[in-house]
């Protein structure tokens, strides 16, 4: 029943609440909020105020389109996104270009902090820092040959240094350290 001038006045506040509902993990809440775009009159009101509404609801729509667990909500979200793209593709591109994900902001901030720590360490202890960097490079170097499992070397190591606190099942070489054997090779229980 509302007319466009009145709608323009309260649309930003209304769509902040609708954006919360759209982004709800409860599928019925999100579904009902997305059903607003099924009403032609409401869509005409939204289209007239799209420059105010799209920035408010974009994050919720983007998040839903990527990770909402309910397939119906996911489909409705994609329909609403498509509707906004058809309304004004230039505005849609502008709003999507301004969006920065909280996760990427967090990673960027974390990387910046790490670089500041590295710079302080390098200024405070240059020799130790250099040695640390060399160890880091060594530990991250990847071998081009696949590592081979040497069962005999493992057996020799076990015989030289038995595990503390673990008892040998017997002194025969085939049943030592039964905890290392697969269940399928353990002898059946006697009755």
- The amount of beta strand, in percent, is under 5%
- Amount of helix: 55-70%
Radius of gyration: 31 Å
Distance between the termini: 83 Å
Let me know the average pLDDT: 80
By DSSP, the count of extended strands is: 0
Short description:
The protein has helices at residues 4-22, 27-34, 40-48, 50-67, 71-87, 89-98, 102-124, 126-140, 151-160. The protein has 191 residues and is mostly helical.
Tell me about this structure.
The longest helix has 23 residues, at 102-124. Helix 1 runs parallel beside helix 4 (50-67), helix 4 (50-67) packs antiparallel against helix 5 (71-87) and helix 7 packs across helix 8. This protein is elongated. It has helices at 4-22, 27-34, 40-48, 50-67, 71-87, 89-98, 102-124, 126-140, 151-160. The chain has nine helices and no strands. Among the domains are: 4-98; 103-129. The chain is mainly alpha-helical and 191 residues long. 68% of the residues lie in helices and 0% in strands.
Q: What's the SSE blueprint?
A:
Blueprint: H1 4-22, H2 27-34, H3 40-48, H4 50-67, H5 71-87, H6 89-98, H7 102-124, H8 126-140, H9 151-160
Helix pairs in contact: 1-2, 1-4, 2-5, 4-5, 4-6, 5-6, 7-8
